[in-house]
Design a protein that fits this description.
alpha/beta, Rossmann fold, four-stranded parallel sheet, 11 strands
């Protein structure tokens, strides 16, 4: 392990062709041969070895619409999820700012899963002890991967909808000055990573697809980092719409609803501090059972997809690419395309946060809930969940008086954690968010200036 900060800048994560060719080559080799080689920090990017954005464009035989659903794939990141990006960004900013010191501080990672995995992974590569604080009712594969990366677990009661308890526990642990939290729900490196890296990667992903523009971007807020990509997309395409997706069973943004649900990684009973609600045009509700059924269909329902008209090779290629939150994002994209009446050539972009590798136990649980999952059942799920997805439960948040409920929800959630009403009110103007984003070039310079050489093989 290295004792000094090194790793990519924001620009290099966006475009790894900017890297030294030897570093890029070594990183690509390590991605497949040794995931715990610190050189993998330079694989934190949406781009593949050919420098193309990793994506699939879902066929109309599956989506039931003429518009293109372009899904950026997070499973190609080191640690298997794009959440490793904001985990790295938060830690590296702390390092170059001198707020986090190697050999002194322990890293805390409040999470419901993928950010915690990313925290354990990045901490391992940069030589830090990591403690991941997460609910005790998540998929067992998530806990196993955190331990595999050397992370320790501090479990709080509940499931996805009980993330507030993880924040309270994090605040408790932070009373020890040697603990530093990568607080994804409230620290702005998460926003910067996704606005710069994910947003600009989304813009690149539609080049040569349809009309080459983005009509809508959909993302289910967990920390609300990913949805920051919509800010950058709308700067490039002012007509684009940004939609936040949340579980029907826990519709906090839509109407203040609370409840338990099965979509791991989203729907946390809050409006997170870093959520720029100014840019959220729609809130769409997705039923949790349909997301897990969708994972089953993509992983085990190849024949059902083929019967619906999907190319067999394409259907087989979907098997390892999606978890429940990715399916949620796809369903939201289909609903938005229908709601906006998009047609041929129009593009809706979304992301698959991770792949199937951490959801075997989720499918085992699904299989136990049904007496039989026959080919007829899979055919019905294909038709009902995807092809005939209704554009119901789409809430228009473009009017100021309606958006006000998001501001009120944020105030309710964060004043109790010590944030002042004056600070929260400053978020009501876009200049607040642009000022956060404008820090990217400065951090590029700081990271480059303090970067040590990667260790030799």
């Amino acid at each position: 392990m290295t004792k000094f900060p090194f790793g990519p800048t924001y620009d290099e994560m966006l475009d790894p062709s900017l890297l030294d060719k030897d570093i890029r080559a070594r990183a690509l080799t390590a991605l497949h041969e040794n995931e715990l080689d610190p050189i993998n920090l330079f694989n934190i990017t949406w781009r593949d070895s050919a420098n193309d954005v990793r994506k699939v464009v879902l066929p109309s035989a599956l989506t039931g619409i003429d518009a293109n659903i372009v899904v950026m794939l997070g499973c190609g990141f080191p640690s298997g999820s794009h959440k490793v990006g904001p985990a790295y960004s938060t830690l590296i900013e702390g390092l170059v700012d001198g707020e986090i010191e190697p050999g002194v501080h322990t890293i805390l990672g409040p999470s419901t899963g993928n950010f915690g995995i990313g925290t354990a992974y990045i901490s391992n590569l940069l030589g830090f002890r990591a403690i991941v604080i997460m609910p005790d009712n998540m998929s067992k594969e998530r806990y196993e991967r955190i331990r595999r990366y050397g992370g320790e677990l501090e479990l709080t009661p509940g499931s996805e909808s009980d993330v507030i308890l993880t924040l309270e526990k994090t605040r408790e642990l932070m009373q020890n000055p040697k603990n530093k939290a990568l607080a994804q729900f409230e620290l702005f490196p998460n926003y910067r990573f996704h606005r710069h890296v994910t947003g600009n990667s989304a813009i690149a992903a539609v080049r040569g697809v349809g009309n080459g523009r983005i009509a809508a971007f959909t993302s289910a807020p967990g920390s609300a980092g990913t949805i920051a990509a919509g800010d950058q997309i709308k700067a490039a395409f002012p007509e684009a719409k940004s939609a936040a997706l949340e579980p029907y069973e826990c519709s906090t943004l839509a109407n203040g609803g609370q409840g338990q649900h099965r979509i791991e990684g989203i729907g946390d009973k809050m409006c997170t501090l870093i959520h720029n609600v100014l840019q959220t045009d729609f809130v769409v509700l997705i039923r949790d059972e349909e997301t897990v059924q969708g994972v089953k269909l993509f992983h085990d329902g190849t024949e059902a997809l083929v019967r619906a008209g999907v190319d067999r090779a394409f259907a087989l290629g979907l098997r390892e690419l999606f978890g429940p939150s990715g399916i949620c994002n796809v369903l939201g994209a289909i609903k938005m395309a229908k709601h906006l009446r998009l047609g041929p050539g129009d593009n809706v972009v979304t992301v698959a946060t991770d792949g199937f590798d951490r959801y075997n136990s989720v499918l085992d649980e699904l299989n136990g809930r049904y007496l039989e999952i026959s080919e007829t059942v899979l055919d019905r799920w294909t038709h009902d969940i995807f092809i005939e997805a209704a554009d119901c439960d789409v809430h228009d948040f473009r009017k100021p008086q309606i958006k006000e409920q998001l501001f009120a929800q944020k105030e309710k959630d964060w004043v109790k954690f010590g944030y002042t009403k004056e600070f929260l009110d400053s978020m009501r103007e876009q200049k607040f968010w642009d000022a956060q984003y404008d820090k990217v070039p400065g951090y590029n310079q700081k990271i480059s200036a303090k970067r040590s050489k990667p260790p030799a093989r």
